[in-house]
């Protein structure tokens, strides 16, 4: 009789497990900017971000949170988020902070933005359309929620956008045209202003956190409830609004277990035996510390739990600060419970970009007996990622190395990673980089092609580089441009720069100055230093119908310098700075800030760069380099030599480690350090 009860209980539990099985990957990026430096601080966004991130965690999302981020911090955190959201079923971005429109384009404002000059919007702010475009290329469904509909708080109102000087909108954000399967929600209607409210949270964020956890509610029903709450809280002054093209149903908080139905397990063991089970289970967890590789998906923890007793249950007492706990059939939230026979299937996926160890706390119970246990998990980056990861790879998990920085052991490390994780295409691409650096061109091209075929976007760009440079094959600029275009459409910043450069200058393709300029701007917005240098040259001289504006050129050079772009520094008359530090007493350092450049024109000698209007007839297409923006070396010319880019914008530069990388020519006759 007792055995039958236990068997029946196990069947019921199994039925529940099958009923609530969900394999969807759902990733949220929550941003709260409160502590602005040059404009008044906002009281709500930090608290909004904290509350909303907890809401998404409770709903079973993998959550990235960023508070009071600068532009550079946003770039880094957004790249990590994009790597995690690659191939996801649902990608969510929630932003609370300053935001406003210029010429129908919406911009989110980092905390270090000053926006004093007309060019600052392009290097200091975040264009919402760029964020949405990246999400579209990586996920099935996109949701962007903006509690940022405020006035432009900066004194300046006119800014450069592409090739025009545009006056910012009067109030609020502009309507966003969504693509298929996208929902964009605003705290208030287009052109109107949202209110901060009188509480710790804004009226909109407070209502969202409250309503989003309603069980099994489709997101459009959730947003309708949020709208009613905000209208009531603001006496009708603020009306939340959304634009939806969703064709799939989106449920934030799933709850599949029928209400009121409970699993009854008859206790057959004496209290002393149950206590032993709990003690053994707690010891198994407390003694289990494990290193978890980053970026390979959920990793089984292999706890080897000592009991399968259906009377033993576990409740999460503390959820890991970063990353996601899951079972094969569902993602766990901070309030999840699991049974003893599920513990051996527990998995953890570290958050990309976070290296700090985390702790997971469990409350283990059986009847009236209870004991707490804590497990320690340490995220780790695979040796292949460390040795051969590519800079700005949106499917990568490490900062990346230039080819001449890839050591001799990289091939072996990446071969081991490919064997251990055959489904992680990143390792196959990185193996190709390592082989290429080792001079094994045929093997490298094969590995890179396999990675491209399996969906690694940077590998597609790499094949374009191989075609453009004729590495181990004949030069084929048509093929190179086709591959650059494909990878650019998938959001790769290197490909955007290469394809944009080709279009802007008409290199092996029909010129399209507008699209080329736009792609260079998008690459620069993702942190591509060479794109910044290219843009500086374009704006300094004025090219292909784009008007000259030295102040705009300076803005991009300063942006490159902030990212340790040595060629940006050299144009500004600064020596390359080493990243190495020495443990000695520190003298007082007075920082010098670049505020302007002074162009001194000297009749002879003169450093010039051939104009892009008429490339040579034998032009091979995009020059075979890329920088940080660039990833392939090309011998540097002696200082002062004339450029020879075949009509391209770029010539070699040196990165902050002192190694050659692809870059942009200065285009300035002589640059003084006035103002330093």
Automatic annotation (TrEMBL):
Source species, please? Mesorhizobium dulcispinae
- Please name the PANTHER family in this protein's record: MUCOSA ASSOCIATED LYMPHOID TISSUE LYMPHOMA TRANSLOCATION PROTEIN 1/PARACASPASE, MUCOSA-ASSOCIATED LYMPHOID TISSUE LYMPHOMA TRANSLOCATION PROTEIN 1
Q: What region holds the Caspase family p20 domain?
A: 24-153
Show the InterPro entries listed in the entry: Caspase-like_dom_sf, Caspase-related_regulators, Pept_C14_caspase, Pept_C14_p20, Sel1-like, TPR-like_helical_dom_sf
- Alphabetized UniProt keyword annotations: Signal
- Descriptive protein name: Caspase family protein
For bias kind Pro residues, which ranges apply? 612-623
Record bears the keyword Signal: yes
Where do the record's region annotations for Disordered lie? 606-676
Record bears the keyword Acetylation: no
Signal sequence span per UniProt? 1-23
